[in-house]
Amino acid sequence: MTMTLRRFFFLACLFFTAHAAFADFLTSEKYGYTIDFPEGFTVLDGEEDGSSALLEHQFVKANVMLKVWDTDTYKDAKAALTGTFSKLGAEGTIETLRWRNQTCALSQFTMQNAAVQGVQSGWAAAYPLPLKKSILVLLVYSEQKSAWHVEQFILSTLDSVMIDRGSFRECGLITQAAFNSSEKKALTVEIAGKRIKSHIGAEDAQASQFVIDREFAVFKLYVNSKYWKEAWQRFYRQIARDTFGRTKKLAFDISEALQAEARVKDKENPDAAIAQMLLTWTQGFPYARQSASPDKADFANIPSVLLGEPSDCDSRSLLLAVLLKHMNIDACFFISSAYSHAIAGAALLGKAGQTISADGTEYLVGETTAAKGTTLGMMDAAMQDRSKWIPVILP
Fold first, then answer.
1. Tens-digit pLDDT profile for residues 21-79
2. 122 half-sphere exposure, CB direction, 13 A CA radius
3. Which positions ≥6 away from 301 have C-beta within 8 Å?
4. CB burial class (10 A; 0-12, 13-18, 19+) of residue 72?
5. Residues 218-227: pLDDT tens digits?
């Protein structure tokens, strides 16, 4: 099951078949949350209404307990996590923090009870759900002796929870807990001859690198598994989600600065003119690979790229796709292990050129590392086998 089609599975459907492995997003329509779980979890048990679940990973030593409490039972996230710990025989110091305008709870914990063998260790979080008067509690854990080996996997799982539409384009709870400064850093970019002033967060580069390093550690667990393509797509999805929030202001400022010129360049399709200006801009970035080591991600964090650090094709393609999506232009990007390359894609009706189809949409390709002047729709003749391109679809 690939991410070419973004399937949303309702919890109620999953629980009719115990031991069913799933991929893609896990969504509860009733409670209004979505979780972009790492690939390979199996549903062992759960309620048909999606209020609880027990999951086990097929080859990573990690388990998940999920429970939704109503606010008549527990008044807030800390109380819900405290109550859950009490019922499970778990212990841990619980802290509260603000995320998505909600007061959430977070804890590292240990647990031993009749339902599990030996001492378990992991992390847990409680997320108030705006759609319903309820609180989602998620525990991700492993045997204590091996928990530190999969801690990045555990944190990634907790960070992949989305509780409202806006959280599809913001960093997760764990990243917010680690980097919560509100300080800003001035940023100026030059696109199509215009100097555009904006800003990013003062900690954005460090926070983005934190996400990249964590998600690469998760991806490495899948390199030799049947889920390697899905895991690779999820790696980029997690980075893109984090990048959306950090580039919101920049995208607005760029759009404001270029809209008038875009209408002059292409009265019938100003979106195409915007996309081409942004593509030409990314083609002018300084180029460098980030790492040749299999132990480090070869991906430049986007805030550092915006501040002038060198970048490669995947960083640029992701940045271009995110900025276009901010501007309500349907975009994605494509990765290829066969070609060791990444390209951007933009859905621009009426524009001719090379396209790749993803999720039922034709995307005009954009080569971000080609020479300036290479336009949308131009594609290296040696890289035109569509079967060798893997789409990364963005929210």
1. 444 688 898 999 999 999 999 999 988 777 999 999 999 999 999 999 999 999 999 99
2. 26
3. 205, 208, 209, 212, 315
4. exposed
5. 999 999 999 9
Q: What is the mean pLDDT of residues 319-338?
A: 98
Smallest CA-to-CA distance from 125 within 168, 73, 64, 166 is with 64
CB-based contacts of 260, cutoff 8 Å, min separation 6: none
